[in-house]
Amino acid sequence: MRKTKAKKRLILPDPRFNDQLVTRFVNMLMLDGKKSVAFKVFYDAIDIVEQRKEDPEQNGLELFKEALTNVMPHVEVRSRRVGGATFQIPMQIRPDRKISMAMKWLIKYSRARNEKSMAQRLASEVLAAAKEEGAAVKKRMDTHKMAEANKAFSHFRF
Hints:
Layout: H1 20-29, H2 35-52, H3 60-71, E1 75-82, E2 85-92, H4 95-111, H5 118-130, H6 135-149
Antiparallel strand pairs: 1-2
């Protein structure tokens, strides 16, 4: 175990939108330390979202944030051993973890799609999530269903 808790590092905002959330997303999207490639993929995806959006008032970044909000889970199940048995206990999620999980799911299910480039895959998943459909939103629904099904064990919460 650590002696002290690790300090939160400061995340610099991205160059185009001046938004820390975008940088955080790009850091998760990045593979093999290639941040400039990840930024290019993200910005291309946002441009594709701009072209394919249905509402003319919304811009690509707003749609991305809406998609992220739609994917964010509110409860999750955690395993807890009580008297030799393991129970799945529903728990509220910290706001920071909600965002992390939403980003990870968006990236995971974008990579699983079968468009040609990663930018197109990410754009498609963002547009689907903004409309509350797609694999990432389904994952959130499944997580909530699991928590609802195990509501009977919530008295074991620590």
